[in-house]
Specification:
The structure is a single chain. By secondary structure, the chain is an alpha+beta fold. Helices cover about 55% and strands about 15% of the residues. Helix 3 packs across helix 4. The two termini are about 20 Å apart.
Length: about 400
């Protein structure tokens, strides 16, 4: 997909296109069923549109367009509008909306197709007389069943996709990880500072609302930096990238900074709403994993490999080392050198359960921080506090991170 599109735009397109595909496929399933039943792709009635090549192309494009429009409305508007409503209110509200919406679609598309079949224009009174006859015919009932089927299937897809994630669902459907695969990925583990104290202060019910708002605040940073949410575990979020994407423009490290910046930007809102503002710590590392489907009662796509243990333990060292973001040596060694924020060695650390120490780096950011991506500083040499350790010679060469080519904002 074009690189000039922002990560948000690419994500929206990936989520909306399946709606168009679903409507196209359902439309053709009904057409084939009709052919099998009556020996024709069109019903033998005055109200039915008789297909020819031109009308077929128009109908196919229209079904894709309407499906994509439903996807845009559902994902970008209705989901948000009904996010806090009860299930009953959501069902009633969406049903009323889609009845009105799809009635308009039929009223717009049927006259166009009828005019094409009759070789006339929309100003011809016969077109509108035919629309009136269609509205009270069995053909309109058949069309309603077809549209309802397309809508139900696409909304079912939307719900599954929202719960699994669009990429995970795609991987399931394509069977990409049906056979385990070896790959290199970058992982970001982050958790909320003082979460236990916050829970005690707010109580469990109020803390749940707080946690939901916390994750909402982090979502845009993950999307803009091309991350994939792997797991939510209590107040911890695990984000993953294929290594190429995680290294590109230092997406993985910049994501951690942008997540922190997003929380600080909304600190006033959290203070006003909950009386306390959250902050986070994050660890980032890259390494080899085995990826595949697993589970007996419930299937999931999971990652296994030492890098997950490493990253979790790197994140756990943030508190004792007094740092917000720590980067492991394997990732630091792969980051491109540039001006901007810098990596500062904090020494070799023995991770819990490991024998060999791992060189860690803290991220130093200028005071003038803009959404996790500070303005570049040019012409300033990078200095290192202390020499590199035997285990961090390669990583010590990667002491500043490229900040140009920033992704565009907003979901």
């Amino acid at each position: 997909m074009s690189t000039w599109l922002s990560p948000n735009a690419r994500r929206t397109i990936r989520r909306v296109v399946p709606f168009g595909v679903i409507w196209f496929l359902v439309d053709h399933v009904f057409s084939v069923s009709n052919y099998a039943a009556v020996g024709s792709f069109s019903a033998d009635s005055h109200e039915a549109i008789q297909l020819d090549a031109g009308i077929y192309v128009f109908a196919s494009l229209a079904s894709v367009a309407v499906g994509c429009l439903v996807g845009v409305v559902e994902l970008l508007f209705l989901n948000r509008a009904f996010a806090t409503r009860s299930l009953g209110a959501k069902l009633v509200g969406k049903t009323l909306f889609y009845v009105a919406f799809l009635t308009v679609v039929v009223v717009v598309l049927y006259p166009i197709a009828a005019a094409m079949e009759m070789g006339t224009g929309l100003s011809d009174a016969r077109v509108w007389e035919r629309l009136g006859a269609f509205a009270v015919s069995m053909e309109s009932l058949s069309t309603g069943v077809q549209i309802t089927t397309s809508l139900v299937v696409s909304l079912f897809y939307a719900e599954i996709s929202e719960h699994l994630g669009a990429r995970v669902l795609t991987n399931f459907l394509t069977g990409r990880y049906h056979t385990p695969k070896q790959e290199r990925r970058v992982f970001l583990f982050s958790d909320m500072k003082s979460s236990t104290a916050i829970t005690e202060r707010l109580g469990h019910a109020r803390y749940f609302e707080f946690l939901r708002a916390y994750y909402d605040a982090l979502a845009d940073a993950v999307v803009r930096h091309e991350g994939e949410v792997y797991q939510y575990i209590g107040d911890e979020i695990v984000v993953s990238w294929p290594e190429e994407a995680g290294l590109r423009d230092a997406n993985s490290v910049r994501c951690a900074l942008a997540m922190r910046a997003a929380l600080r930007t909304r600190a006033g809102w959290f203070e006003e709403r909950f009386g306390i503002a959250p902050d986070l710590r994050a660890g980032v590392q890259t390494g080899d994993v085995t990826t595949g489907e697993i589970g007996a009662l419930k299937k999931e796509i999971v990652f296994t490999g030492d890098v997950l243990n490493q990253t979790a333990r790197i994140q756990a060292l943030c508190k004792p080392l007094g740092e917000d973001v720590l980067v492991g040596d394997a990732l630091a060694a792969r980051l491109k050198e540039a001006d901007g924020w810098t990596l500062r060695p904090v020494g070799d650390q023995v991770l819990r359960g490991k024998e060999q120490p791992v060189a860690l780096f803290a991220v130093d950011v200028p005071e003038a921080e803009d959404d996790g991506a500070p303005a570049p500083r040019t012409g300033q040499p990078v200095s290192v506090a202390g020499g590199p350790s035997p285990h961090s010679h390669a990583a010590a060469t990667a002491l500043s991170i490229r900040e140009n080519g920033r992704a565009g904002s907003s979901n």
